[in-house]
Amino acid sequence: MNATFRFFSRLEGPQTLGRGPLFWLGFLVVLAGACAYPLFSDGYTVGNTVYFFTWVFMALGLSLIWGYGGALSFGQTAFFGIAGYSYGVLTINFGAAYGFTLVALVLAVLFAALFAVLLGYFLYFGRISGVFLGIVTLSVTLVLERFMAQTAGPEWHIGKARLNGFNGMSAMPPLTLPWPGGDLVLFPDVELYYVVLALMVVVYLGLRILVNSPFGNVLVAIRENPERAEMLGYDIRKYQLGAFVIGAMLAGLSGVLYTSWGQYITPSSMGMTAAALPIVWVAVGGRSDLTTTLVGTLVVLSVFQALTIHGSQYALVVMGVLLVLTVLLAPQGLAFAFARLIARPFRSRKTGDV
Amino acid sequence: MRKEVLLSTLGLRAGYGGKPVLQGLDIEVRESEIVAVIGRNGVGKSTLMKSLIGLIPATQGSIVYQGKAVERLAAHRRARLGLGYVPQGRDVFPRLTVGENIAVGGMRAGGVSEADRERVLSYFPILRERWNQRAGTMSGGQQQQLAIGRVLVANPSLILLDEPSEGIQPNIVQDIARIMVELNRATGTTIVLVEQNIDMIRAMAQRCYVLDKGRIVAELERDALADGEAMRRHLAV
Amino acid sequence: MAILETRALNKRFGGLHVTNNVDLALEPGEVHCLIGPNGAGKSTLFRLVLGEHLPSSGQILFDGEDITAFKPFQRIRRGMSVKFQVPGIFKALSVRQNLEIAMQHHYEPAHLVAEIGRLLDFLKLAPDADRLAGNLSHGQKQWLEIGMAVSLKPKLLLLDEPTAGMSPEETHATGEMVQRLNADGMTVLAVEHDMAFVRQVAQKVTVLHLGQVFAQGTVDEIVADERVAAIYLGQVAETAHA
Amino acid sequence: ADPIKLGVLEDQSGDFAAATIGKVHAIQLAAEEINKAGGIDGRPLELVIYDTQSDNTRYQEFMRRVLQRDKVDAVFAGFSSASREAYRPIVDQLDGFAFYNNQYEGGVCDAHMIVTGAVPEQQFSTLIPWMMEKYGKKVYTLAADYNFGQISAEWVRNIVKEHGGEMVGEDFIPLGVSQFSQNIQNIQKAKPDFVVTLLVGTAQASYYEQAAAANVGLPMASSVNVGQGYEHKRFKPPSLKDMYVTTNYIEEVDSPQSKAFYDKFKAKFPNEPYVNQEAENSYLAVYLYKQMVERAKSTKREDIRKVIAQGDVCMDAPEGKVCIDPKSQHMSHTIYLAHVNADHSIDFPKVWQDIKPYWLGEAGCDLTKSNPNAQYTPSNPPPKP
Amino acid sequence: MDVGTLAFSALYQFGDAFAFLVLSACGLAVIFGMMGVINLAHGEFIMCGAYVTVSAAHAGLPLPLAILLGALVAALVGALVEIVVIRHLYERPLDTIVATWGLSLIATQGTLILLGSTMAGVGTPFGSFQVGGYSYSLYRVVLFVAALVVLAALYALFNWTRFGVMARATIQVPHMAAALGVDTRRVYTLTFALGAGLAGLAGGLYAPTMTLVPTMGTTFIMEAFVTVVVGGADVFLGTAPAAAVLAVVKATMTSLYGQLFGQIGLLLAVIIVIRVLPRGLSGFLLRERA
Ligand SMILES: Nc1ncnc2c1ncn2[C@@H]1O[C@H](COP(=O)(O)OP(=O)(O)OP(=O)(O)O)[C@@H](O)[C@H]1O
Ligand SMILES: Nc1ncnc2c1ncn2[C@@H]1O[C@H](COP(=O)(O)OP(=O)(O)OP(=O)(O)O)[C@@H](O)[C@H]1O
Ligand SMILES: NC(N)=O
Ligand SMILES: [Mg+2]
Ligand SMILES: [Mg+2]
């Protein structure tokens, strides 16, 4: 009991919206709903929901880097792409047997992390900040896109895996779970749904603990006033780098899940439009909180998809209008505006007296 | 004989996003007067100054300047009517040069005349010396001098001074007090002064409001100001 | 051995020689005030000591160690802390969180909450603990920043105009706080223009002028120095709170 | 009777919209005609249309949607090859049946796919020898720097060599680039007899205007421009003067079938800026599908493929006669050589009948025997058995 | 080939790249440098200028006037956008990324719906000239001159006029500028309109040489951002040298290794410049200025 309490108390703090028994009760209800829902739904809806879920990791990572750390990374898609391609190259070369796809997933995320360490070191130890950071990260992802787009020729291959240029790489196996009596192939259906849902819950709770820890405190401090944070004795570059790498790994996780979901990865996943989308999700949801980011991302993804399905040629116009209105009318993000209305009984975070 | 009222507030209330700070303030500033406003930290002195110049809206009450209700006017309109404002914390334009900062100060009057510029530079010689230095790289006290000079070039008829002595070396504090008094005598410029520095208040002010928790709790006339002990008591309310 | 020592320290900005061959030594346990005209180079000297600026030449020693090339956070970890001239706080965070961030690595988690509470009382900010720091009045921000600096329990506390914008009363209280910290063994280096404060706390005073050490001595010696009066204090400097 | 459902995934907005809105309209036109005439075997044709917004991820989302939720019988999908590659794994995974009604770089050997567009061997084996004969043997290629451009350039290179010509230059242009001063100079320096322009997308089409402004004055040959992006209508004459294009259809084709098709199209969609070859490919694909379903008496892919295997699935399309090749499930086409005059009017110096999509079959793709779900290129051919 | 021909062609390629970088960037630079707003709808203002220019030319207006009209209309649209949307976001500049991205969606798709997927061009004026066996488009030279004129005019405007000083003051400490009598709202509106108008001018100038489609603005975006960033915070000091440096990089890489490397070279140049000079070229130029 006491241990449970301590566990929950580490999940809470001034850095996250929602606390107290009521909030967690609500959380469990939502989780139970999410677990039960495939039983009442069809394959398409489940597969489509998994598709939405795959993007959430990248959004949460950006929330950590940008919302908490104050550094706008415009290049999360670079890590997404690197991990996606890595997964493709690894599994095309080594197959899917013996649960190798899971090894490939881990390795791919590690590649993204490694790249983030290099890039992050270059950025933060070079004291690049503000919009310059955004533009450098954007440039990096655009370089990757341009480069990958022209790898159509036969000379561009890693082992058996052709990079295949702008058309994108396909034919990699989906994720598999080793299972007694034959591996479980995770096609975009119920099995994959539960795996990704579990991952999402773990990542969400893990990030909550992280941002409410002393590490999270320092991260927020750096966002507010880096000079002061340094003058309190913190090596701010290490904290920023830490957040950047974690955010990159989450983007990488999204990349692997996406690649496995559609058995396809393309340079456009690293292009300008793709790079702008995570920023939109996170900003619309409310970047300075994990929960709002998560909810906001899912809302934006489903609203935009629904609009595209039903809105015909006006879909993009309506999307644009919605974005502008959201920014104007819900300055802290849509989810935050809703949360403020709904979460009152949950004793929302104290935001002072503004 | 009393001069005409230049600026007055009636039941002035103002605050920050729903949080009231000024709780119905009545003050009167007469032409060519130097009035001080004193009070502890956080009682609302700067809030009063900001609402007078128009940087925060009055939620209730009126502000009358030269017989005209100005509480609905935007800050730049009030400035153009002759209000000058030296904020607490200087707020110079950091990436403009000293000269450009001065130029912005003269904007409301349509430009800085040679004579005005020379007058201000004679008050604060360091500004001439550093004419092309970026204001953000000036020392704290130098910035404060710039903030004051920037307002003086436009010859405002009423100056709102929020803690002008802050960060200034003692002998220049005395200079500033002297300059202000001279200016007041020579041109009839009216001054509202928020200060913690008793010497400066005594050197300048003819009258003084004591503020506490957003209300005027006392009004001291000239002779009361002479009593240092009483002053200190009020500042410590 | 001096706790802080600068040797032939120089800093130039373009053609401007802002710190000119400064040799300064601080004895452990002293309260040392640095005064001098606006633009004399006091804040710059602070920034050099803290590593915000790198010197054009010269050396800085802290506790016998050469820290000239250290990063700011490394210096802080060796036992300095600072309150800047312009208040540096975390504006969008609550007052309590500001202190928590400062203190979290200096206190056991179990004691942290209580310690924060004590400091809040001490700073008279308890009623404002859950407000955003950016919404405090100017003076309150000063207090908060002093509190953050002090909470690091530094060996050397650097204060740049700690009482700017404070009423005489509060200035006095700040002086008392400095004296108390000093009594517990903390060395303090303060830049101040408020001579009442200097008189209250300083055991030694250094006057900086045009980037150079211009005079040094006790408060009385400095106040009596006509050269200092001429460049800095003016004639009637000292009547009010003597 | 139950309707037959046809999914339509085409870009009606975004970068490619200019070339693809007409594809949707062509499908609507065909469906309307078929339904008026009693449907397919008495079953009405129902279209499920989504706008893929020139975005690969939308193809992935909507391909799942049409196959799983809307349960369509077949899907007509895709303009860019990248979008085709994005949805193809999903079609394979969900065992769907998709028509790619677009000219492309060739090589898709996938039993779940039928391709009605033209491929390089059809367009270049005709175009390049003709150009070399008329203008000379020195050739310069300016191509989009991605699969389509690179593979097409490879075809050009091979054919030029076979015919004893010489490549005097090759420039590859990243998609989205719109400034060509350096390339224009490179071309002038190499002094080719003609330039093969394989430029894709609206931005790259700016080349023509810029080359004309610099007075390059060389004849041009293309498999993709004019037929797809109707550049001769968009740019002011004479910037496309002496451009030669092999295409299986454009609205200027002067035959009774073509006229009839064009008139029907314009009657239904009077604002259509141009009826391009992809519109015709899409239109004929609907009729082809009708014929196959009626012959198979089923909409199941396996039944339809049995009909294809008979090797006689042919029809009279607006361009002329076309047939499906059972090995590759690609189409034979009538190839028109369109020539752009100084005033941007078009004439057709040459027409080739019944050009087969021979390469895949010769290289070893045989869908009647096995299904590799792969895409091959001349430098990456199918593994020899 | 003789040295003169070679030199001229190198110069021409440089000038061509320079003009494209400057004209793409200056509208963005004004809005970003002055207001801190990252305008992702920059390309759509360019498109607006191009569309208006071409429509006006089709309607019979002489091309130079049509171009000016394009710039003017873009400026008016910019003013409107500022008043309706941007004005409310100055406190949170990063949110303008989302808002302007939304605006760009509205603009591109709205144009597609209203005006169709393409528009017919007007053709490039002035013809060509010959230097040492190569023929060049004279209009590209005009573009280069236009870029120089725009740079000079901007520099003069912001450094030598009241408006310039007012605008820079407003951007830095808006409340203080207001308290000193500056009508900050008007300054913001005018500045944004100026940026939009410059984008429109770029669109108008390039319209005769390009495909006219609703998404045409995107082809300017990368060059625009790269130039602004390499230039650094002070746009008037930074844009010209940044465009010059980048034009050399781009022209050289393109001529040696082709367009792909021209583009990748540009992007790598950004990364390297920012690493070496974290505050851009203007930060570097200003570093020692007391
Ligand atoms: N921007 C702001 N947002 C919210 N509250 C504010 C803001 N600025 C000041 N306050 C609050 O308003 C009250 C009055 O502040 P004000 O700055 O007017 O005090 P002051 O009398 O000038 O104090 P000081 O002597 O410290 O300058 C204080 O409680 C302060 O916390
Ligand atoms: N980055 C810089 N570039 C140019 N000059 C500078 C820079 N920083 C400081 N200076 C100059 O160096 C001198 C010393 O400044 P410093 O801030 O150290 O003064 P100070 O003694 O703290 O003065 P104050 O009492 O006014 O705070 C001043 O003349 C200032 O203008
Ligand atoms: N299929 C093409 N042209 O990409
Ligand atoms: Mg105040
Ligand atoms: Mg100082």
TrEMBL record, chain A:
PANTHER family: HIGH-AFFINITY BRANCHED-CHAIN AMINO ACID TRANSPORT PROTEIN BRAE, HIGH-AFFINITY BRANCHED-CHAIN AMINO ACID TRANSPORT SYSTEM PERMEASE
Domain of life: Bacteria
Localization annotation: Cell membrane
Keyword flag Acetylation: no
Any Pfam family hit: BPD_transp_2
Transmembrane helix listed as a keyword: yes
Keywords assigned by UniProt, alphabetized: Cell membrane, Membrane, Transmembrane, Transmembrane helix
CDD domains named in the record: TM_PBP1_LivM_like (cd06581)
Stored InterPro entries: ABC_transp_permease (IPR001851), LivM-like (IPR043428)
Membrane topology listed for this record: Multi-pass membrane protein
Name of this chain's protein: ABC transporter permease
Residue ranges of the TM segments: 21-40, 52-71, 78-96, 102-124, 131-149, 192-220, 241-258, 264-283, 290-308, 314-339
Automatic annotation (TrEMBL), chain B:
SMART domains according to UniProt: AAA
Gene3D superfamilies in UniProt: P-loop containing nucleotide triphosphate hydrolases
InterPro entries in the record: AAA+_ATPase (IPR003593), ABC_transporter-like_ATP-bd (IPR003439), BCAA_Transport_ATP-bd_LivF (IPR052156), P-loop_NTPase (IPR027417)
Domain of life according to the entry: Bacteria
Family from the record: Belongs to the ABC transporter superfamily.
Signal peptide coordinates: none
Name of this protein: ABC transporter ATP-binding protein
SUPFAM superfamilies noted in UniProt: P-loop containing nucleoside triphosphate hydrolases
Keywords: Amino-acid transport, ATP-binding, Nucleotide-binding, Transport
Pfam families on file: ABC_tran (PF00005)
Keyword Ion transport: no
The ABC transporter domain, residue ranges: 1-237
Keyword Nucleotide-binding: yes
Gene Ontology molecular-function annotations: ATP binding
PANTHER family found in the cross-reference section: HIGH-AFFINITY BRANCHED-CHAIN AMINO ACID TRANSPORT ATP-BINDING PROTEIN, HIGH-AFFINITY BRANCHED-CHAIN AMINO ACID TRANSPORT ATP-BINDING PROTEIN LIVF
TrEMBL record, chain C:
CDD domains: ABC_Mj1267_LivG_branched
Listed SMART domains: AAA
Occurrences of domain ABC transporter (ranges): 4-235
Keywords associated with the record: ATP-binding, Nucleotide-binding, Transport
A GO MF label: ATP binding
InterPro entries named in the record: AAA+_ATPase, ABC_AA/LPS_Transport, ABC_transporter-like_ATP-bd, P-loop_NTPase
Name of the protein in question: ABC transporter ATP-binding protein
Species: Ancylobacter crimeensis
From TrEMBL, chain E:
Source organism, top-level taxon: Bacteria
Swiss-Prot/TrEMBL keywords: Amino-acid transport, Cell membrane, Membrane, Transmembrane, Transmembrane helix, Transport
Ranges that cross the membrane: 17-38, 45-61, 67-86, 98-117, 137-158, 187-208, 220-249, 256-277
Membrane topology: Multi-pass membrane protein
Main location (coarse class): membrane
Record's subcellular location: Cell membrane
Keyword Cytoplasm: no
Family named by the database record: Belongs to the binding-protein-dependent transport system permease family. LivHM subfamily.
The protein's name in its UniProt record: Branched-chain amino acid ABC transporter permease
Species whose genome carries this gene: Ancylobacter crimeensis
